[in-house]
Amino acid sequence: MASNVYVTKWSPIGAIELKSSYQKNMRNAVLLVLASFFLIFAVIGLVRMLMASDAASAPSIIIRDLSELGPPPSVARRDVQVKVQQEIAAPKFTLPEAVPDEEVTEDFVIVSQEELAEISSPVLSEGDGAGNVQFDIPIEEYIPTPDEFVAVEERPVKIQDAPLKYPEIARKAGIEGSVWVKVLVDRSGNVKDAIIAKESGANAGFEEAAIEAAKQCKWKPAMQNKQPVALWVTYEIKFQLKS
Length: 243
Fold this sequence. Notes:
Layout: H1 15-20, H2 22-57, H3 113-118, E1 157-160, H4 168-173, E2 177-185, E3 191-198, H5 206-214, E4 218-220, E5 222-224, E6 227-229, E7 231-239
Antiparallel strand pairs: 1-4, 2-3, 2-7, 5-6
């Protein structure tokens, strides 16, 4: 049994409509471009006409003689003020008049022994045996800060310790600990100040007891250029219960 097969040529959707309106769209585009060019040229021509009319309407000034210009504007003259230095009168000197010696009075001030004793003078030592007089003038002691570095030949050495009082709270609770203190040893070997460098962390009164004991210690002072100097020293104080 024979069957008929129909083959149709495929075309994209809308192709027929585009082909039918192609010439019309092309004509409209050309006309739009021509109209745009015409409008641009018309605007340029109109602007040139307006500029030419403004230039023609501007009044022209013709000068035939320089006398027609009239007098020039006056320029105000400013007088410059010059400061005149006033003359300074020279000081007048009066020559002393000579008088006889009998008429001259002299003023004398008599100082008593008590007033002489009140006059301050440097303290003298006995001397060095070679005829040289030595002045014993006190030198103010330099106090360094706790964090200041001071170079010394000999560091302080503790020569007398103080009794350490164990805190009663820590004793009853059976707590032991240690505290780092920093003390200022002056030139005489005494503790001038004491601070806590590191706490025990127990909060049982170790810090207060350590400061109290540190202030009562005696030290050999630090030496710098063979002279005692003040210096901060840090050391540990341990609190241990006796078994």
